[in-house]
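Posting this for the archive.
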Amino acid sequence: VQLQASGGGLVQAGDSLRLSCAASGLTLATYGMGWFRQAPGKEREFVAGIGWSGGSMAYAESVKGRFTISRDNAKNTVYLQMNSLKPEDTAVYYCAANRYGSSRLKVDEYNYWGQGTQVTVSS
């Protein structure tokens, strides 16, 4: 089982990025998916989550209105569109899958994790 996150990079404040999370050895269609991030010296925090069908989503307050999570079960891939990026969005971003099938908010509710992709936003 592997979740491969990609799409990170170095951008300026106000720019956009789209992260992708592709799964292998795992059919994502029955899993709830989430994006988390971890900045240096801080705990991993929830960013966004989406239910198995794509019908329910949840966002951290800090990213509401700027980030959008989506999924394409046919491609076994989940996305995080990040707009209006801020320096405080700088972190390693991780995708994760949970067996609940819903948009869970806690790290320990997820069963599989990707390796992370670095997002750096300069001011």
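The chain has a mean pLDDT of 96. Residues 12 and 110 are 31 Å apart (CA to CA).
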